[in-house]
Amino acid sequence: MAGEQGHVDVDLDNDIDKVVDEELAAKEAIAGGDGSGSKRKPKKVHRQSSKENVVASGFIHGPRSWKNSRRSRNGYGRGLPKKGGAGGKGVWGAPGSELLETYEDVNDPNFDNENLSNGDIELKAIGKLGIYNTFTQILVECVGSYFVIVIVPDVSHEEIKKKVDPIILEYFENGDTHEASIAIAEAVPKQYRDVLVEQVIEVSMDHKPSHREMTSVLISDLFGHVITETDITKAFQSLLANLSDLILDIPDAPTFLGNFIARAIADDCIPPKFITITKEKSDNEVFQEALSRADTLLSMKHGLVRLHNVWGVGGALRPVKALTRQMNLTLQEYISSRDIEEASRCLRNLEVPHFHHELVYEAIVMALEANNVQVEEALCNLLKAFDAAVFVTPEQMERGFLRVFDDLPDIQMDVPLAYIILDRFVDRCHKEGFVTDRISEKMPNRGRKRFVSEGDQQFIKNHKAS
After folding, report:
1. What is the pLDDT confidence band of residue 279, given thresholds at 50, 70 and 90?
2. Subcellular localization, per the record (predicted)?
């Protein structure tokens, strides 16, 4: 076997030498021919024998067809491709090799020119909070035994407010603080949570008292999970500083802001010393008015308990008895002052347009119990004003009158002249034009009950017997 192997190597080497000699002779004939046409004798090229080559380098020369072969050329390979398939032109590389790369190609379409490792960004460490640069903010948070680097994009306050407004309006519709907290945590970075609190309070000032109550509840529920005491403090300080601008659009802004501050203190979101410390920062009149309002609410008897209803409880959250009592007080105050605007404001603050028929019912009953022409005229003017402003809809008005018609037998037990007074009041309202003919036609008439004496009763029995 050894002899055969040596014989093959010698033949292979001789074939290669012949090919090389022929090529050299052809090139010499073309390049060095003279005018006589004689050929120059080719120069002898000394080549190393194959055996010496194998012994010296362990490399076996092969034919030219082996040039592009991917097999190992040392004679000891298993026939596998070189470098595990990662070598050669146009090859993607070994699977998973992209994860081991520690550099980025500038000509790569996916190259990030804002990468922190390319030397174009200068980082500055600020205490233990994080690292900041001109493009992004990097926060270092400790999670368990690991440090997590969170890159937060730098956004303006206007962009934050645009993100917050839809969340606030949706919360005013459904009242779900849990859903609002999830949306806020995803949309607003931690370093901008004070802008969030400021925007929530500012938006609620343009809405109803029930929405301001919902805002106070939201701040209380988010405290300790999504927002911190520092965020709430910064928000109130910013609102106090901009109070002169807010009062142009919201005249009651100092009162509202004072209520928010007092409520936040009652909910243990900010300390009571906030009022004392903040009062020393400005001598502005509206600035001091808001803080004085908060201080007054906290100083009254059982102030912390009463502050839970500082915005009132409107809508469906308030019991029916409480709404009825509030409407009755509104009517009594109107009879004393005859101020229709104040009565409208009080009724509007209750936020129960579906329950306005109760106001109509209470007004008619109050007119029956008073049995006074001046009171009947005042209540008629009030209902007429509510109907003209469509503050009380025709359906609610009709429903209130029909309820009185149904309960009139019971009302007569307390007011014997109820039928007479009601007929007079309905006629007055019909002349004013806000009571329709349909209501007037349904006005009950008192039937005359004839009491039969014993003599008449005996006469009737005898008449029937005959």
Report:
1. confident
2. Cytoplasm
